[in-house]
Write a structure and sequence with these properties.
This protein has helices at about 10-30, 50-60, 95-100, 170-180, 190-200, 215-225, 260-270, and strands at about 35-40, 45, 65-70, 85-90, 105-110, 115-125, 130-135, 140, 145-150, 160-165, 185-190, 205, 230, 250-255. It has about 270 residues and is an alpha+beta fold. It folds into two domains: about 10-150, Fructose-1,6-Bisphosphatase, subunit A, domain 1 (Fructose-1,6-Bisphosphatase, Chain A, domain 1); about 155-270, D-Maltodextrin-Binding Protein, domain 2, CATH 3.40.190.80. The strands form three sheets. A seven-stranded mixed β-sheet has the order 3-4-5-6-7-8-9, sandwiched between helices. A five-stranded mixed β-sheet has the order 11-10-12-14-13, covered by helices on one side. Helix 1 (about 10-30) packs antiparallel against helix 2 (about 50-60). The longest helix is centred in the first third of the chain and has 21 residues, at about 10-30. The relative contact order is 0.14.
Length: about 270
């Protein structure tokens, strides 16, 4: 794989890219075979692929000194005393993996002082990566080459292409999207929603759920920010990481940045 065109790379960047790539390859191997699916305590599905990916990522990231907060491991809260940690979702979009949509990802972020300074999202079925390092822009690797990516400049909400969850779109979200006058809506799995906005293929992602957790958004946060867009909660509050409570209590709004405040304003009228 060619080098990512970032001149002052932090060493963790290559490590995270390697982890996402190798985990993605292992996931694909399992994807094309028979595999075990079980259910976690919260009723969400988990497969052999989640566990294998987690194992590979942890092994590669252990070259660094940092603690790892992963969806598939017990959180011992020791991380709260650390300034820098990894946040990992070894397989984002397990339902899409099981449904064979191809729309699942590997997410790895490095957090420093509660903010993501590095984000890597791997899309195994398409051999694609979305990568950002704070202060250096966002990049997409596909068709064997790296390209810098950025958000669109569309400023009219009604003209915005909006993406949302395939598995969890609520009635509240549907009616809010309608109220905004948005007609172009597509359901997409996993963190690919943010990948699309970051690379200028959509403008907004709206979710009001309080079920998303830090590992569902950490890598995306860095990528959308570096692509010129914005991620906050639905009330416009900034999002921080490495908190004791890992849930995003007020949903998540991701946009090209230009339409962000208008959507927040409209949402507050509903509350």
């Amino acid at each position: 794989m060619n080098e990512i065109p970032i001149s002052d790379k932090i060493p963790e960047l290559e490590i995270a890219i390697k982890a996402a790539k190798e985990a993605g390859e292992a996931i694909l191997e399992i994807y094309h075979k028979n595999y075990e699916t079980t259910t976690k305590e919260d009723d969400s599905p988990i497969t052999d692929a989640d566990l294998k990916s987690n194992e590979i990522i942890k092994k590669i990231l252990s070259q660094t000194e940092y603690q790892i907060l992963s969806e598939e491991d017990e959180d011992d809260l020791n991380r709260l005393s650390q300034k820098t940690i990894w946040i990992v979702d070894p397989l984002d979009g397990t339902s899409d993996f099981i449904d064979k949509t191809g729309e699942f990802t590997v997410m790895i972020a490095l957090i420093k002082n509660k903010k993501p300074i590095l984000g890597v999202i791997g899309w195994p079925t398409e051999k694609t990566l979305f990568v950002a390092q704070k202060g250096n822009g966002a990049f997409k690797f596909s068709n064997n080459e790296w390209n810098k990516i950025s958000v669109t400049q569309i400023s009219e909400i009604s003209k915005c292409r909006t993406v949302g969850s395939r598995h969890h779109l609520s009635e509240k979200e549907k009616s809010f999207i309608k109220k905004l006058g948005i007609e172009d809506f597509t359901s997409i799995g996993s963190s690919l929603k943010v990948g699309k906005i970051s690379s200028g293929e959509a403008e907004a992602y709206i979710t009001t759920t309080n079920k998303m957790k830090e590992w569902d958004s950490a890598a995306s946060y860095c990528i959308i920010s570096e692509a010129g867009g914005k991620m906050t909660d639905m009330l416009g509050n900034d999002i921080t990481y490495n908190n004791k409570d890992v849930y995003h209590q007020n949903g998540i709004l991701v946009t090209n940045g230009i339409i962000h405040d208008k959507i927040v304003e409209e949402f507050k009228k509903l509350e």
